[in-house]
Amino acid sequence: MQRMVRLGVFLLLSAFLALPALPTLAAQQPATPEAEEGPATPVPPPTPQLPVTVTDVQGNTVTVEDVSRIVPLSGDIAEIIWTLGLGANIVGVDVSAVYPAELQQLPKIGFERQLSAEGILALNPTVVIGKEQAGPAAALDQVRAAGVPVVILAEPQTLDAPAEKIRAVAEALGVADAGEELANRVQSEIDAARELAAQATSKPRVLFLYVRGGGTQLIGGAGTVSAAMIEGAGAIDAGSETGLQGFVPVTAEAIAAAQPDVIIVPGSGVGSLGGMQGLLEIPGVAQTPAGEQGRILVYDDLEFLGMTPRTGKMLQELVEALHPELVDATPVASPEVA
Predict the structure, then answer these.
(1) CB within 8 A of 111, min separation 6: which ones?
(2) Number of domains in the chain
(3) Span 50-74, pLDDT tens digits
(4) 338 pLDDT exceeds 70?
(5) What's 285's domain CATH number?
(6) How many beta carbons lie within 10 A of that of residue 67, not counting itself?
(7) Could you report the per-residue pLDDT of 132-177, keeping only the tens digit for each?
Protein backbone atom coordinates (compact mmCIF):
# COMPACT_ATOMS: atom_id res chain seq x y z
CA MET A 1 0.00 0.00 0.00
CA GLN A 2 1.35 3.33 -1.01
CA ARG A 3 1.28 6.19 1.48
CA MET A 4 2.19 9.84 1.02
CA VAL A 5 3.64 11.17 4.23
CA ARG A 6 3.52 14.83 5.26
CA LEU A 7 6.06 17.26 3.91
CA GLY A 8 9.68 17.03 5.01
CA VAL A 9 9.44 13.79 6.98
CA PHE A 10 11.23 10.99 5.17
CA LEU A 11 11.63 9.21 1.86
CA LEU A 12 12.40 5.81 0.46
CA LEU A 13 14.64 6.47 -2.50
CA SER A 14 13.26 5.67 -5.93
CA ALA A 15 15.64 2.81 -6.66
CA PHE A 16 14.03 0.85 -3.84
CA LEU A 17 10.35 1.67 -4.15
CA ALA A 18 9.06 -1.59 -5.64
CA LEU A 19 8.84 -3.43 -2.34
CA PRO A 20 5.74 -5.10 -0.93
CA ALA A 21 6.93 -5.14 2.67
CA LEU A 22 7.21 -1.38 3.21
CA PRO A 23 4.87 1.44 2.23
CA THR A 24 6.01 3.69 -0.59
CA LEU A 25 7.28 7.02 0.68
CA ALA A 26 7.65 10.23 -1.31
CA ALA A 27 10.29 12.93 -1.03
CA GLN A 28 8.93 16.40 -0.43
CA GLN A 29 10.28 19.78 0.60
CA PRO A 30 9.88 20.86 4.24
CA ALA A 31 6.65 22.65 4.98
CA THR A 32 6.68 26.13 6.39
CA PRO A 33 5.13 26.52 9.84
CA GLU A 34 2.17 28.33 8.28
CA ALA A 35 1.43 25.38 6.01
CA GLU A 36 1.88 22.63 8.57
CA GLU A 37 -0.25 21.67 11.51
CA GLY A 38 1.31 20.43 14.70
CA PRO A 39 3.35 21.62 17.65
CA ALA A 40 5.97 23.37 15.49
CA THR A 41 3.42 26.03 14.51
CA PRO A 42 4.11 29.03 16.74
CA VAL A 43 1.44 29.93 19.26
CA PRO A 44 0.66 33.48 20.43
CA PRO A 45 3.68 34.63 22.45
CA PRO A 46 3.34 33.96 26.17
CA THR A 47 4.30 36.67 28.62
CA PRO A 48 7.49 35.67 30.44
CA GLN A 49 7.32 35.91 34.21
CA LEU A 50 10.75 37.33 35.08
CA PRO A 51 13.17 37.29 36.75
CA VAL A 52 13.50 33.54 37.16
CA THR A 53 16.30 31.59 38.83
CA VAL A 54 17.13 28.04 37.81
CA THR A 55 19.82 25.49 38.59
CA ASP A 56 21.16 24.02 35.38
CA VAL A 57 22.51 20.52 34.75
CA GLN A 58 26.05 21.63 35.61
CA GLY A 59 24.91 22.83 39.04
CA ASN A 60 25.11 26.52 38.17
CA THR A 61 22.51 28.83 39.69
CA VAL A 62 21.44 31.15 36.89
CA THR A 63 19.12 34.15 37.09
CA VAL A 64 17.43 35.21 33.86
CA GLU A 65 16.02 38.75 33.85
CA ASP A 66 15.55 39.41 30.14
CA VAL A 67 14.61 37.05 27.28
CA SER A 68 14.34 39.67 24.55
CA ARG A 69 17.51 38.42 22.78
CA ILE A 70 17.89 34.64 23.04
CA VAL A 71 20.74 32.60 21.55
CA PRO A 72 19.96 28.84 21.55
CA LEU A 73 23.05 26.69 21.02
CA SER A 74 21.43 23.79 19.12
CA GLY A 75 18.67 23.11 16.63
CA ASP A 76 16.40 21.26 19.04
CA ILE A 77 16.55 24.04 21.63
CA ALA A 78 15.85 26.63 18.94
CA GLU A 79 12.83 24.64 17.72
CA ILE A 80 11.48 24.35 21.26
CA ILE A 81 11.83 28.11 21.84
CA TRP A 82 10.07 28.77 18.53
CA THR A 83 7.24 26.39 19.36
CA LEU A 84 6.78 27.98 22.78
CA GLY A 85 5.96 31.21 20.95
CA LEU A 86 9.24 33.06 21.56
CA GLY A 87 10.69 32.68 18.08
CA ALA A 88 10.78 36.45 17.53
CA ASN A 89 13.21 36.71 20.45
CA ILE A 90 15.82 34.42 18.87
CA VAL A 91 18.70 36.51 17.47
CA GLY A 92 21.12 33.79 16.34
CA VAL A 93 21.36 30.01 15.99
CA ASP A 94 23.86 27.25 15.38
CA VAL A 95 24.04 25.49 12.02
CA SER A 96 21.78 22.63 13.14
CA ALA A 97 18.78 24.98 13.54
CA VAL A 98 17.04 24.19 10.26
CA TYR A 99 13.41 23.99 11.40
CA PRO A 100 11.29 25.98 11.03
CA ALA A 101 12.66 27.62 7.90
CA GLU A 102 12.62 31.10 9.46
CA LEU A 103 15.47 30.10 11.77
CA GLN A 104 17.73 29.48 8.79
CA GLN A 105 17.67 33.18 8.00
CA LEU A 106 19.21 34.18 11.35
CA PRO A 107 22.92 34.86 12.00
CA LYS A 108 24.95 31.69 12.63
CA ILE A 109 27.13 31.13 15.69
CA GLY A 110 28.86 28.01 14.32
CA PHE A 111 28.33 24.42 15.44
CA GLU A 112 27.10 23.54 18.92
CA ARG A 113 30.36 21.80 19.90
CA GLN A 114 32.67 24.34 18.27
CA LEU A 115 31.39 27.69 19.50
CA SER A 116 33.27 30.95 19.91
CA ALA A 117 32.48 33.47 22.61
CA GLU A 118 33.03 36.31 20.17
CA GLY A 119 30.39 35.04 17.75
CA ILE A 120 27.82 34.70 20.53
CA LEU A 121 28.57 38.02 22.23
CA ALA A 122 28.44 39.87 18.90
CA LEU A 123 24.68 39.23 18.94
CA ASN A 124 24.28 41.07 22.27
CA PRO A 125 22.29 38.22 23.86
CA THR A 126 20.32 38.59 27.07
CA VAL A 127 20.34 34.81 27.65
CA VAL A 128 22.12 31.82 26.11
CA ILE A 129 20.62 28.35 26.44
CA GLY A 130 22.07 25.02 25.35
CA LYS A 131 22.72 21.39 26.28
CA GLU A 132 25.53 19.42 27.91
CA GLN A 133 27.46 18.87 24.68
CA ALA A 134 27.69 22.61 23.94
CA GLY A 135 31.21 23.94 24.03
CA PRO A 136 34.05 24.33 24.33
CA ALA A 137 33.61 25.09 28.02
CA ALA A 138 36.09 27.97 27.84
CA ALA A 139 33.92 29.76 25.28
CA LEU A 140 30.84 29.49 27.48
CA ASP A 141 32.85 30.69 30.48
CA GLN A 142 33.79 33.79 28.48
CA VAL A 143 30.12 34.44 27.75
CA ARG A 144 29.32 34.13 31.45
CA ALA A 145 32.20 36.42 32.33
CA ALA A 146 30.67 39.04 30.03
CA GLY A 147 27.59 39.03 32.26
CA VAL A 148 25.30 36.97 30.01
CA PRO A 149 23.24 34.23 31.74
CA VAL A 150 24.11 30.80 30.29
CA VAL A 151 21.75 27.90 31.01
CA ILE A 152 22.94 24.36 30.18
CA LEU A 153 20.29 21.64 30.13
CA ALA A 154 20.34 17.84 30.36
CA GLU A 155 19.93 15.80 27.20
CA PRO A 156 18.27 12.44 27.93
CA GLN A 157 18.70 9.78 25.25
CA THR A 158 15.18 8.48 25.74
CA LEU A 159 11.64 9.26 24.64
CA ASP A 160 11.27 11.28 27.85
CA ALA A 161 13.62 13.86 26.36
CA PRO A 162 11.19 16.06 24.40
CA ALA A 163 8.91 16.78 27.36
CA GLU A 164 11.85 17.18 29.77
CA LYS A 165 13.67 19.61 27.50
CA ILE A 166 10.51 21.60 26.79
CA ARG A 167 9.81 22.04 30.51
CA ALA A 168 13.42 22.99 31.26
CA VAL A 169 13.61 25.54 28.44
CA ALA A 170 10.26 27.03 29.39
CA GLU A 171 11.22 27.34 33.05
CA ALA A 172 14.49 29.09 32.19
CA LEU A 173 12.67 31.58 29.95
CA GLY A 174 9.91 32.36 32.43
CA VAL A 175 7.09 30.64 30.50
CA ALA A 176 6.61 27.52 32.60
CA ASP A 177 2.85 27.32 32.01
CA ALA A 178 3.26 27.37 28.24
CA GLY A 179 5.98 24.76 28.60
CA GLU A 180 3.76 22.46 30.62
CA GLU A 181 1.00 22.68 28.03
CA LEU A 182 3.36 21.97 25.14
CA ALA A 183 5.14 19.16 27.00
CA ASN A 184 1.83 17.46 27.77
CA ARG A 185 0.75 17.69 24.15
CA VAL A 186 4.00 16.28 22.80
CA GLN A 187 4.03 13.49 25.39
CA SER A 188 0.47 12.52 24.45
CA GLU A 189 1.55 12.17 20.82
CA ILE A 190 4.51 10.00 21.81
CA ASP A 191 2.27 7.84 24.00
CA ALA A 192 -0.25 7.48 21.17
CA ALA A 193 2.46 6.32 18.77
CA ARG A 194 3.71 3.74 21.25
CA GLU A 195 0.17 2.48 21.78
CA LEU A 196 -0.17 2.06 18.02
CA ALA A 197 3.15 0.16 17.92
CA ALA A 198 1.83 -2.21 20.57
CA GLN A 199 -0.81 -3.36 18.08
CA ALA A 200 1.82 -4.51 15.57
CA THR A 201 2.26 -8.17 14.70
CA SER A 202 5.64 -7.67 13.01
CA LYS A 203 8.97 -7.18 14.79
CA PRO A 204 11.60 -6.06 12.25
CA ARG A 205 15.30 -5.76 13.06
CA VAL A 206 16.31 -2.16 12.41
CA LEU A 207 19.83 -0.74 12.19
CA PHE A 208 20.63 2.97 12.40
CA LEU A 209 23.69 4.22 10.51
CA TYR A 210 25.07 7.70 11.14
CA VAL A 211 27.27 8.64 8.22
CA ARG A 212 29.13 11.74 7.09
CA GLY A 213 30.97 10.77 3.95
CA GLY A 214 33.79 8.28 4.27
CA GLY A 215 35.22 9.86 7.41
CA THR A 216 32.37 9.29 9.86
CA GLN A 217 30.44 6.03 9.63
CA LEU A 218 28.84 4.84 12.86
CA ILE A 219 26.34 2.22 14.00
CA GLY A 220 23.83 3.16 16.69
CA GLY A 221 23.58 0.89 19.71
CA ALA A 222 22.11 0.86 23.21
CA GLY A 223 21.71 4.19 24.98
CA THR A 224 21.26 6.27 21.84
CA VAL A 225 18.35 8.36 20.61
CA SER A 226 18.13 6.16 17.52
CA ALA A 227 17.67 3.05 19.68
CA ALA A 228 14.97 4.83 21.69
CA MET A 229 13.09 5.73 18.51
CA ILE A 230 13.40 2.24 16.98
CA GLU A 231 12.35 0.43 20.14
CA GLY A 232 9.58 2.96 20.80
CA ALA A 233 8.26 2.12 17.35
CA GLY A 234 7.91 -1.54 18.31
CA ALA A 235 10.98 -2.85 16.47
CA ILE A 236 14.25 -4.49 17.50
CA ASP A 237 17.24 -2.15 17.54
CA ALA A 238 19.76 -4.41 15.81
CA GLY A 239 22.78 -2.55 17.18
CA SER A 240 21.62 -2.92 20.78
CA GLU A 241 20.57 -6.53 20.23
CA THR A 242 24.08 -7.46 19.11
CA GLY A 243 25.63 -5.85 22.19
CA LEU A 244 26.74 -2.46 20.85
CA GLN A 245 26.76 0.48 23.26
CA GLY A 246 26.43 4.05 22.02
CA PHE A 247 27.78 4.84 18.56
CA VAL A 248 30.58 2.60 17.31
CA PRO A 249 32.52 2.60 14.02
CA VAL A 250 31.02 0.66 11.15
CA THR A 251 32.65 -2.66 10.35
CA ALA A 252 31.52 -5.32 7.90
CA GLU A 253 31.49 -7.79 10.78
CA ALA A 254 29.18 -5.63 12.93
CA ILE A 255 26.77 -5.09 10.06
CA ALA A 256 26.78 -8.80 9.24
CA ALA A 257 26.04 -9.64 12.89
CA ALA A 258 23.16 -7.15 12.97
CA GLN A 259 21.42 -8.60 9.89
CA PRO A 260 18.87 -5.77 9.75
CA ASP A 261 15.58 -6.08 7.93
CA VAL A 262 15.51 -2.28 7.68
CA ILE A 263 18.28 0.34 7.75
CA ILE A 264 17.64 3.95 8.77
CA VAL A 265 20.03 6.75 7.76
CA PRO A 266 19.86 10.55 8.06
CA GLY A 267 19.12 12.39 4.85
CA SER A 268 22.31 14.44 5.05
CA GLY A 269 24.28 11.23 5.46
CA VAL A 270 22.99 9.77 2.20
CA GLY A 271 23.77 13.06 0.50
CA SER A 272 27.33 13.03 1.86
CA LEU A 273 27.88 9.64 0.23
CA GLY A 274 26.63 10.83 -3.15
CA GLY A 275 23.34 8.94 -2.95
CA MET A 276 22.04 5.47 -2.23
CA GLN A 277 24.73 3.71 -4.22
CA GLY A 278 27.34 5.21 -1.91
CA LEU A 279 25.48 3.83 1.10
CA LEU A 280 25.37 0.35 -0.44
CA GLU A 281 29.12 0.49 -0.97
CA ILE A 282 29.73 0.61 2.80
CA PRO A 283 31.18 -2.86 3.51
CA GLY A 284 28.46 -5.31 4.46
CA VAL A 285 25.42 -3.10 3.83
CA ALA A 286 24.46 -4.54 0.43
CA GLN A 287 24.63 -8.09 1.84
CA THR A 288 22.08 -7.49 4.63
CA PRO A 289 18.39 -8.33 4.17
CA ALA A 290 17.75 -4.57 4.19
CA GLY A 291 20.33 -3.91 1.50
CA GLU A 292 19.30 -6.85 -0.66
CA GLN A 293 15.63 -5.89 -0.56
CA GLY A 294 16.09 -2.11 -0.61
CA ARG A 295 14.51 -1.51 2.78
CA ILE A 296 16.30 1.77 3.46
CA LEU A 297 14.50 4.60 5.23
CA VAL A 298 15.93 8.12 5.01
CA TYR A 299 14.82 10.68 7.59
CA ASP A 300 15.51 14.33 8.30
CA ASP A 301 18.35 14.49 10.83
CA LEU A 302 16.81 16.91 13.32
CA GLU A 303 13.35 15.38 13.18
CA PHE A 304 14.56 11.81 13.77
CA LEU A 305 17.37 12.45 16.26
CA GLY A 306 16.54 15.84 17.79
CA MET A 307 13.90 14.90 20.37
CA THR A 308 11.91 18.01 19.52
CA PRO A 309 8.22 18.98 19.65
CA ARG A 310 7.80 16.96 16.43
CA THR A 311 9.03 13.68 17.92
CA GLY A 312 5.56 12.22 18.55
CA LYS A 313 4.53 12.69 14.94
CA MET A 314 7.88 11.36 13.74
CA LEU A 315 7.48 8.29 15.91
CA GLN A 316 4.02 7.54 14.58
CA GLU A 317 5.30 7.77 11.01
CA LEU A 318 8.12 5.40 11.91
CA VAL A 319 5.64 2.96 13.45
CA GLU A 320 3.58 2.92 10.26
CA ALA A 321 6.66 2.56 8.05
CA LEU A 322 8.02 -0.40 10.02
CA HIS A 323 4.68 -2.16 10.46
CA PRO A 324 2.74 -2.09 7.17
CA GLU A 325 -0.02 -4.16 8.77
CA LEU A 326 -0.96 -1.08 10.82
CA VAL A 327 -1.46 1.29 7.91
CA ASP A 328 -5.14 0.42 7.63
CA ALA A 329 -5.64 0.36 11.39
CA THR A 330 -7.59 3.11 13.06
CA PRO A 331 -5.00 5.66 14.27
CA VAL A 332 -4.70 6.14 17.98
CA ALA A 333 -5.72 9.77 18.50
CA SER A 334 -3.73 11.84 20.94
CA PRO A 335 -5.90 13.68 23.46
CA GLU A 336 -6.21 17.42 23.12
CA VAL A 337 -4.57 19.53 25.78
CA ALA A 338 -6.79 22.29 27.01
Answers:
(1) 94, 95, 96
(2) 2
(3) 999 999 999 999 999 999 999 999 9
(4) no
(5) 3.40.50.1980
(6) 22
(7) 999 999 999 999 999 999 999 999 999 999 999 999 999 999 999 9
